[in-house]
Amino acid sequence: MSKLKNKVAVVTGASKGIGASIAKYLAKEGASVVVNYASSKEDAEQVVKVITDNSGNAIAVQGDVSKKADVIRLFTETKNAFGTLDILVNNAGIYQFESIEHFTEDSFHQQFNINVLGSLLTIHESLKLFGKTGGNIINISSGASNTPMPNGAAYSATKAALDAITISLSKEFAGKNIRINSVLPGIVETEGYHTVGMAGSEAETFMISKTPLGRSGKPEDIAKVVAFLASDDSYWINGEKISVMGGLYGI
């Protein structure tokens, strides 16, 4: 399997969960991968080890995507290690589910700074490394963009903003051979999924009951779609919002 042979990818927020799975799948398809992390160094290094133990190429680079200096360093280290960039996956993100009565300015800024500003900063820097053949940007959005949930007003707004960025830039990049798409996961079983108490909850049972395929998603369900979008097999897909939700709609 080598759909991404000789390609270089940066995956933000790749130390665990969906991001880690994406990094591994891109490497499996032949890409050299930069595993970005904010604080989970040990987890990021474990992702790198899995990749290199399977004859892949990867490095871990710390960086808070909401900070311009960190983003510049992330792409500088990418250039130093691999010389170029072909694929950017904006996966880094946070969510804070809370009622409007408990909403705070800090919560707003934390979510928008990472989910929205962080993506804009990484896209800005990626353009400096994309070569003559262009580039490929994949934003990890959420089903909450199209179907906002109770207690998730700010989070849903960040993902709607990220999708707007995707559509806007797909037009702005006309003639530059740069594609950009959004992937909208539904409920996905990750470490955070368990941390917030979703696993085994009434909310999980309800959402699965509304999912025609009858289960929550797995990180690899998302990673496989990202790997497809990162490859030339998806060359005619641009500026799209692609739902990966097992058929979950309209909750």
Automatic annotation (TrEMBL):
Keywords: Oxidoreductase. GO terms for molecular function: oxidoreductase activity. Belongs to the short-chain dehydrogenases/reductases (SDR) family. NCBIfam families: PRK07231.1. This is Short-chain dehydrogenase. It comes from Flavobacterium hydrophilum. The lineage of its organism: Bacteria, Pseudomonadati, Bacteroidota, Flavobacteriia, Flavobacteriales.
